[in-house]
Amino acid sequence: MLGYFKHQTQQEIIESPQRCRVLSHDLSLYTGVADLCYGARAGFCLYSILPLTKTALMNIQQSWKLIQSWANSWVSHYQMLEHWEALYNKNHQDSQLTRTESDILELLVSGLNGPEIANLRSVSKETIKSQIKSILHKTQCRHQNELVSRFCFGHWVARPKLES
After folding, report:
1. With contact defined as beta carbons under 8 Å apart, do 47 and 28 qualify?
2. Is pLDDT larger for residue 156 or for residue 146?
3. Could you tell me if residue 142 is inside a domain?
4. Across-strand partners of 32?
5. How many Å apart are CA 15 and CA 13, to the nearest integer?
6. How many secondary structure helices (H) and strands (E) does the chain include?
7. Would the pLDDT of 102 be above 80?
8. pLDDT value of position 121
9. CB–CB of 4/29 below 8 Å?
10. Dihedral sign, CA of 135, 109, 128, 125?
11. pTM of the model
12. Is residue 39 part of a domain?
């Protein structure tokens, strides 16, 4: 919804070091308010000294629709992050990983490889390799790709044993 209000301003004096101007205008105020997902709301206001043309109004309305879509996307993204963190914390508490192993798992999921993690943590590559092997063993993953994939889907706790 795009609203339109007109306000009369009193004569104002704006002073600057360069010169002094006197402004006396009718200001037009254009506003929009929208309900977003998850109970959020978005709004905007735009003041214009000159009346806006129909084309300008249409552009504002289209821009407002774009802003609403972006805002919904942003709200959804942060809502997803909150759910993800809650799920991660729940699974994290149930796991048998040490704090260091959990930190390394987070770095793997963020896209770093073993040598990069070793450099970041100021330890040897062999130490990280050993810790990754321990993570794989505890989570019953066969390789890092499976570990990262299962972690990303929230199933990173131990895989059920298959009977042969």
Report:
1. yes
2. 146
3. yes
4. 2, 44
5. 6
6. 5, 5
7. yes
8. 95
9. yes
10. positive
11. 0.42
12. yes
